[in-house]
Amino acid sequence: MSLNLQTYTEHFTNPLYLESGRILEPYDISYETYGELNEDKSNVVVVCHALTGSHHAAGFYENENKPGWWDGLIGPSKAIDTNKYFVICSNVIGSCFGSTGPMSPQYAHHEPYRYRFPVISIKDMVKAQRILFDRLDIHRVHAIIGGSMGGMQALQFAIHYPNFSNKIIAMATTHATQPWAIAFNKIAQEAILKDPDFKQGRYDPETIKKQGLAGMAIGRMAGHISFLSPKSMREKFGRDYKLTDGLYELFGKFQVESYLEYNGYNFTKWFDPLAYLYITKAINIYDLSRGFDSLYEALKRITAKLYLISFKNDILFKNFEMQEIADELQTIGNVNYNYIDIESDYGHDAFLVELNKFENYVKEALDG
Predict the structure, then answer these.
(1) Which of 99, 148, 165, 232 is flagged as catalytic?
(2) Which residues pair with 339 in a beta bridge?
(3) Rounded-to-integer distance, Cα 54 and Cα 69, Å
(4) What interhelical angle do 214-227 and 179-193 show, nearest 10?
């Protein structure tokens, strides 16, 4: 069987009422599907992407040498088996890969929104996806799965649309973004805002694509540190020095420094700085208990079977944050859940890299 990768963009003219009280209209959502939808539409698995991810979760585009971000997990006979399941992954609103975001043209005068774009929350991202699924005539799905910001979306689905999905699999995430993660985002935000080439949000996106944005690269380096762990850095780089640099040259580099520079500066050529500001804002204000008296009250609404996965050495969303969700669920008593903490030294990005450590668990959760 083939992956059957299909990419679409849907246009919506009805207003999207946001959590802030503001309205987004019209708006687009780009999404990708894999596998085949069965007759009674009971085999849908929704995949939610993280901060810099997109709807391109698996397979290759033409002229592309790097596959979608979860290609190791999604496909024929893989954990999310496209021989069995019809997989949908949509780009969140606020992003820069086809869904409406801050650099999209604002209706009527066709200038980009820039700072006129409203603040989006994770709940808004989920609401927009729910509207997309309604349009596709999909009113209940088999499962929703995501890691990091994708896990935040999965949990929001579980609470705000309790009858929409049979199963929810959330990994490397939290119930409310903690000050440690907000602090890393702050460095990235400040570095972008203070870069003169950012031009207070009035930059030319084509120039940024060619030249990158130094401030954003620096912010991304800080972010990158939070995605790894001291142990994974030690194993990956040790104290290796760049072979072509002298130890006593002021700007001579360790391998870890080269790695951060390479990733930081590359990143700015393919991810929009305003989208980065808006999405990190959405992550910072994420809190499952907002609108409820407590986290307990929010989690009480869940009717799906819940699978929670944390990673031992995740320094961005610590495993005890997932444990807090599990503890609340135990107190509630009537929510069917399963929580595992995976042995991993890799850090936060384990959910993208160490697939072999949880793919069987995901497969059993989906097929069981």
Answers:
(1) 148
(2) 308
(3) 8
(4) 160
Position 281 pLDDT exceeds 80: yes
Active site (annotated) includes residue 314: yes
Catalytic residue among 124, 272, 314, 349: 314
- Of 281, 337, 295, nearest to 95 by C-alpha is 281
In this prediction the pTM is 0.98
Kindly report, as residue ranges, where domains of CATH 1.10.1740.110 are found in the chain: 181-280
Task: State the Cα angle at 150 between 96 and 355, rounded to 5°.
Answer: 110
pLDDT tens-digit profile of 27-82? Answer: 999 999 999 999 999 999 999 999 999 999 999 999 889 999 999 999 999 999 99
What's the confidence (pLDDT) of residue 2? 87
Give the rounded percent of residues in the chain with a pLDDT score beyond 90.
97
What kind of architecture, by CATH, is found in domain 6-176+287-367?
Answer: 3-Layer(aba) Sandwich (3.40)
Q: For residue 196, what pLDDT is reported?
A: 97
- 230-237 vs 255-267: helix crossing angle, rounded to 10: 110
Q: What is the mean pLDDT of residues 345-361?
A: 98
Instruction: Identify the pLDDT of residue 108.
Output: 87
Q: Is 28 a catalytic residue?
A: no
Third-level CATH fold of 181-280 = Rna Polymerase Sigma Factor; Chain: A (1.10.1740)
What's the average model confidence in pLDDT over 241-270? 96
Amino acid identity at 1: M
Contacts of 80 (CB under 8 A, 6+ apart): 45, 47, 70, 73, 74, 87, 145, 362, 366
Where does CATH 3.40.50.1820 sit in the chain? 6-176+287-367
Please list, in sequence order, all residues whose beta carbon lies within 8 angstroms of the beta carbon of residue 242, skipping any fewer than 6 positions away: 252, 253, 254, 255, 257, 258
Could you tell me which residues come within 8 angstroms of residue 328 by beta carbon, excluding any fewer than 6 positions away? 175, 295, 296, 299
Catalytic residue among 49, 55, 175, 348: 348
d(C-alpha 328, C-alpha 330), whole Å: 5
